[in-house]
Amino acid sequence: MVNTFGTLQFTTKICIANTGTVVGPVEKDSTFADSFDEVLSLETEKDETNEQAHARMIESACHWAAKKGHTQVDKVDVLIGGDLINQLSPTNFAARSLAIPYLGVFSACASSMESVILGCLLLESGNARTVLAGASSHHQAVERQFRYPLEYGTQKPKTSQWTVTGAGFSLLEKDLKNTPVVTHATIGKVVDSQQTNPLHMGAAMASAARDTIERHLTNTNSKMADFDVIMTGDLGNIGISILKEMFQDENTGVILQDAGAQFYGNDKFFNAGGSGAGCSAVVFFGQIYDQLKKGSFKRVLLVATGALLSPLTFQQGETIPCIAHAIECRMEKRG
Amino acid sequence: MWEVHLDKGKYLVSNLHISNTSEHTNTKKGASNHMKKSLIVFLMVLLLGACSSEKEKVIFPSDNSSSLKPIMQKQDTIYGYKSVINEEDILVAININRFDRFNKAKIEKKITKQIEKQFPEKKVLVTGDQKLMWEVETIIEKKLKQKELKKSIEKIKLLSKEET
Amino acid sequence: MDQQQFQKIVDEKNPKVPFFMNILKAFIVGGIICTIGQLITFFYMRFFPFTEGTAGNPTVATLVFIAMILTGTGLYKKIAQIGGAGSAVPVTGFGNAVISAAIEHKSEGYVLGVGGNMFKLAGSVILFGVLSAFVVALIKTILVNIGVVSW
User: Fold this and answer.
1) Which residue of B has its CA nearest to A261?
2) Are C71 and A193 in contact (CB < 8 Å)?
3) Residue contact A151–C99, C-beta within 8 A
4) Residue B136 binned pLDDT confidence (cut-offs 50, 70, 90)
5) Are A178 and A198 in contact (CB under 8 A)?
6) Do B38 and C24 touch (CB under 8 A)?
7) What is the DSSP string of B91-114?
8) Any stretches that span the bilayer, and where are they (chain C) (predicted)?
């Protein structure tokens, strides 16, 4: 049943008016490259730190979303954003420049959908007219915080993933025509499947994705086949195959896909694929949003997956708990 | 509906299939290719490792007293030596066998003692150091005499005393 | 789905680690680095008044310098992806650990940033290296004093 056990149904018409996606130079050759609004030529300019570049990217994405949605950032009621860096510094500093009411959220790589869910709730309750919601990540900044110095020579295993440098933000507004509508959402539950390898997060996150997808389907009384695509954020090649295996009895076919696994195509350099809060954000608000708007997709479930570990918990021998937040988007018939 | 989906969304669909198949071929064919390559490299490494070279046994100037040679012949831990004899000094640079190099200091001391017993009036220096061997070879090649010989021997003795 | 079932799926889907190839690659890369080191040693012995015993110092310094260049230009991590332990174990690996940390933390200033974080990765190497040297020397001293081995 909707509005129970974390599955929300929105009774008002909450639309994604438009989106803004900004990515780094490495993402220029991505499978989804032509759906990004802006590709930066350098991940970090000469006189700035990685974190400053990260904040700049967030601002840029917000401006793109607002402009494409025929408004300006300073006219938006609330900004909701998240990233992976300690204390959400890049998003905080971007919010400082954007200077609108701001809520920072953290659920690791699931932050993009958490932001959108909160934005939808604000609009549903009539407490805001427009909301900018999204998330971002920056490769150098994340590597430095969670793993080793960038130039350090470690041998990355095939299960590791490459953090995407990208910021994706969506402009949410009510009662628009010919735009994708967020009809339902499912708030994730923290699921721990006893995985301990931080270089193999796909396996850790698969269980959380499964829980969210199952709960959503059960509570909305639907089956996988009712959707055009169910896309997870960053399970990676191996994670998505684990997830498909878990849904073995259902005919998942091409419905169940993963943004991270496809992000860099077949390039073995990126091992298991892309990851990061920005991965789900730029793909969902880029390619998927475009497909919805065109009408190629009519009903999608977007599941952003996040691993809730920190460098400290890993060193202390803890396992990796994960979470996955989901939104269901539908494109109404052309009217 | 599906055509449009496949067209723009072909990245989503076809990519999935490509990545699935390439994983399979990588593991099966790739494995046998890898095995062949690694075997060839391994054999090459073995072959090259078997190369060795000859070393001479020289005493300079010619061995007058002829009591140094038998001492050196007796040693089974070395495969070559070059020595320089002066009025006051005996300088022997030795080539120690590969595995005996762990006991380099002990071997040097042992040979020094043996030579000192035979030649109590001379100052003896036995060294296994490659650099000093080259220096001794230079002396022998250039056929240094008297003053230059003495200078070179002094230089070698200084070098051997150097610490890190 | 219970934990056991899930773990079985994970183990099934995990890519196999190519141990033999990894070991071979590490051997070759490590061997090449050490061969280059030996050539550098011969260079110093031939053209400078270093003996076999004292040529080790400039050799290590030169190798660390080379590691610095390779780390700064981003080449070392490419070698490391191929060689794994073969590039991490020689002194060049130690140099890479220190240098990469120093480069990374420049944005926090020289004293707290670079100075405070430079040995983040290499610190354990130094600590456990000194500790094991002490332990080995202690064991040898005891054995010599008992009379089992001699100096």
Assistant:
1) B16
2) no
3) yes
4) confident
5) no
6) yes
7) EEEEEE-TGGGGGHHHHHHHHHHH
8) 23-47, 59-76, 125-148
Q: Which two tokens stand for residue B18?
A: 């490509």
Looking at chain C, which runs of residues are DSSP E strands?
none
Beta strands A166-174 and A130-137: pairing type?
Answer: antiparallel
Q: The complex's ipTM?
A: 0.85
Has residue B12 got a pLDDT over 50?
no
Q: Which chains touch C (3 or more CB pairs under 8 A)?
A: A, B
What's the length of chain A? 335
By residue count, chain C amounts to 151
Q: What is the mean pLDDT of residues B105-132?
A: 88
CB-based contact C121 A238, cutoff 8 Å: no
- Say which CATH topology domain A7-174 has: Peroxisomal Thiolase; Chain A, domain 1 (3.40.47)
Neighbouring residues of B112: CB distance < 8 A, sequence distance ≥ 6: B124, B125, B126
Higher pLDDT, residue B32 or A325: A325
> How far apart are the C-alpha atoms of A276 and C83, rounded to whole Å?
27
Q: Is the pLDDT of residue C130 over 70?
A: yes
Measure the CA–CA gap between A274 and A264, rounded to whole angstroms: 7
C-alpha pair distances (Å), C21 with each of A271, B42, C54? 17, 11, 36
Residue type (1 letter), C24:
L
Q: CA distances (Å), A205 to each of A156, A209, A246, B16, C10, in order? A: 19, 6, 12, 20, 11
Lowest mean pLDDT among A5-14, A259-268, B38-47, C116-125: B38-47
As for how many domains chain B has, the answer is 2
Specify the 3-state DSSP secondary structure of A173. strand
Q: Counting one residue from A and one from C, how many pairs have CB atoms under 8 Å apart?
A: 82
Read out DSSP for A248-291? TTS--TTTEEEHHHHHTTT-GGGTT-EESHHHHHHHIIIIIHHH
CB contact under 8 A, A296 and B13: no
Query: Nearest residue of C to residue A145 by CA position?
Result: C104
Q: Measured between beta carbons, which residues in chain A are less than 8 angstroms from residue B12?
A: 229, 254, 257, 262, 287
- Say if domain A181-330 classifies as CATH 3.40.50.620: no
**Domain around B44:** 2-49
Q: Which of B10, B29, B49 is the last residue of a domain?
A: B49
Mean pLDDT, contiguous 10-residue spans, chain A (335 residues): 93 96 94 93 89 95 95 95 95 96 96 97 96 96 91 91 96 94 96 93 94 96 94 94 86 88 92 94 96 94 95 92 96 70
Backbone angles phi, psi at A143, to 5 degrees: -55, -45
Beta-carbon separation of C52 and B34 below 8 A: no
User: Are both B135 and B69 inside the same structural domain?
Assistant: yes
| Contact between C18 and B35 (Cβ < 8 Å) | no
Residue C51 has its nearest CB partner, among B27, B45, B162, at B162
